[in-house]
Structure formats: structure tokens, C-alpha cells
Amino acid sequence: MTAVTAANKRKAIAHLKKVDPVMARLIDAIGTCKLTLRDQGSHFDAIARSIVFQQLSGKAASTIHGRLEGLYGGRSPLPAELTVTSDEHLRGVGLSRGKSAYLKDLAARVVSGELPVETLHELSDDEVISALTRVKGIGRWTAQMFLMFRLGRPDVLPDLDLGIQKGIQRAYRLRKLPSPDRVKKIGAKWAPYRTIASWYLWRLLDVPTPVPRSGD
């Protein structure tokens, strides 16, 4: 499957600037796309980490994740190890009851072979989302983040993401946040490079002043 590379970043930027003048101004204002992939460790490690980080600040999540690795000698747990770790130990590192259950469900599905975690990169985007969302605690958004930042898939638009919605609202000067359906409608023209467009929308939220319209 195609992954984000320096070459297709260049193609993506050329395409986005051609099909959408708003995106063109956004790209000019922000500059080079610095999207990088999280390629350390295994796919299982990446998914487990995403569960730990759900709905937490980066600092708090990093602390809990570090404590979790501490249970296994300072490394990420193997699926089989996680399945036999007591809930008490998982709660002891700061994981909620729900996240402890989600991690164990993930590990159990990997151990049983139900989730072919280390060959997920061989599946299509829709197949990856379908496989991951069978795991308790993993929704479409988490699966999309895996596609974008682990597998580097170039055409993912996380329509449920608040940052994407806010970015579109600001870029297009909308009166209210766009619905997921409107996000998909606005973003349709960005295909097949919606991941790159999403990166620029997220970065827009870090820009202190609005991106100017033509003639402003």
C-alpha cells in the first residue's frame, strides 16, 4: 500500500494548491509539510500506545505509558504478557478500568489471531479500520490516526476530529464548526492526498493570525 514519502508530499502539495485556492494560501502560509511517521516498535506497540493516550494530555499519558513499560523492564509488553497482567497492576500504573480492559482485549485478539496486527500494513484503509474497530475502545478516529501516523496512508480525512473541524472553520471562515458530513464534502477535492491536507489544517491552529484571503 502507498505510504507518505517526500516525493508524494510534493505531488500532494501541487495537487492541493491546484484544486483548492484556500488550501493553496494555507500551504503558502505554513510552509513545508513536516508530517513524520511513528515507526518505532511494532504495530501492536503503536495501537496500545494510542489506547493509553486517549483523552489525556501528552504529559500525563507519557507518564502512564512509561509506568506501563516499567512493568515489563522498561519496554513495551508483548501481547501474551499483557493478557496475563493483573488488572491491579495495570490500574496501579494509572490506567483506568476501561483502558485496562481495552488493552487486554487488544492483546487477546492478537494472541488468538483474530487481529492480524503485524500485517495490518498489507490491508486497505477500510480493512484496517474494520479490523481495529472490533477491538474494545478503538473507534474510527483512533484507527484513522494509526493509518495516518503509523502506516503513512496519504488519503485519510478524520472527519470526527475537532482539530480538523476547527481548522476548516478557520480556513474557510465558517460561522460554526462544520459537521463531519460537511468536512467530507469540503475535503472531497483534496483526494487522494487528504492526509497532507489534514496536517495543514492541524498546523493552522498553531498560526496566530488568520490566513489571508486573496486580495486581503
Descriptive overview:
It is a single chain. The protein contains twelve helices and no strands. The protein folds into two domains: 6-37 and 156-204, Endonuclease Iii, domain 2 (Orthogonal Bundle); 43-149, Orthogonal Bundle (Endonuclease III, domain 1), CATH 1.10.340. The termini are far apart. It has helices at residues 6-19, 21-30, 43-53, 58-70, 79-83, 87-92, 97-112, 125-132, 140-149, 162-171, 180-187, 194-204. The mean pLDDT is 92. The chain has 216 residues and is an all-alpha fold.
Give me some keywords for this one.
single chain; 216 residues; mainly alpha; Endonuclease Iii, domain 2; Endonuclease III, domain 1; 2 domains; 12 helices; 56% helix; 0% strand
Measured as a percent range, the helix fraction is 55-70%
Characterize the largest beta sheet: strand count, sense, and whether it forms a barrel. none
Query: Which percent band covers the strand fraction?
Result: under 5%
Shape, per Cα inertia axes: elongated
Mean pLDDT across the residues is 92
**Which fold name fills CATH's third level, the topology of the largest domain?**
Endonuclease III, domain 1
What name goes with the CATH superfamily of the largest domain? Hypothetical protein, domain 2
Find the structural class using helix and strand composition.
mainly alpha
The CATH architecture of the largest domain can be given as: Orthogonal Bundle
Cα-atom radius of gyration: 19 Å
Order of helices and strands: HHHHHHHHHHHH
CATH class of the largest domain: Mainly Alpha
Query: Uncertain spans, ≥5 residues at pLDDT below 50?
Result: none
Question: How many individual domains?
Answer: 2
- CA distance, first residue to last residue: 42 Å
